[in-house]
Specification:
Elements: H1 2-19, H2 26-30, E1 34-40, E2 45-51, H3 54-57, E3 63-71, E4 80-84, E5 102-107, E6 119-128, E7 138-147
Parallel strand pairs: 5-7
Antiparallel strand pairs: 1-2, 3-4, 3-6, 4-5, 6-7
């Protein structure tokens, strides 16, 4: 009987830990994307085009949450911002980060005001972009600010 009480106590302690789900890490998922150079005739240069893995394609259109650093590389009159896995000094635009380390965030309503390198958390529907060079490869649509 004593052993059953100990076992029951252990199960009670372990229960909530086992029930916790692993936190979704968008940046790790984005990093699984492979990029290959292709010549883009319109500008006469090679650009890196994404080959999205199936597990990332399965998330397209689904709501995800992502945390990142605000970097000021979106048009001021647009309804989107760019967030990065890394601070501005290390991001895709200024540092050594790759295209998998940035995401475009299109807000449902007006765009909140941020300062460079503010860490923000946003939630929106994932859109994968392989062809439109005016936008980045990973886009959150209908996004809302979760935390600033």
């Amino acid at each position: 009987m004593k052993h059953l009480r100990i076992l029951a106590g252990m199960l009670l302690l372990a229960g909530p830990v086992c029930a916790q789900q692993a936190k979704f890490d968008a940046w790790s998922q984005f990093a699984k994307t492979k990029f290959e150079p292709k010549y883009y005739e319109k500008i006469g240069e090679y650009l890196f085009y994404p080959k999205f893995p199936d597990e990332l394609k399965a998330l397209e259109g689904k709501e995800i949450t992502i945390e990142g650093f605000y970097v000021p590389f979106a048009p001021e009159d647009g309804n989107y911002v760019i967030i990065s896995k890394y601070p501005m000094s290390q991001c895709f635009f200024c540092g050594g980060g790759g295209p998998e380390s940035i995401a475009e965030v299109n807000f449902k309503g007006s765009v909140p005001k941020f300062q460079v390198d503010d860490i923000i958390t946003v939630r929106g529907k994932l859109k994968l972009n392989a062809d439109d060079i005016e936008h980045v490869n990973f886009i959150l649509t209908e996004a809302v600010l979760v935390k600033k």
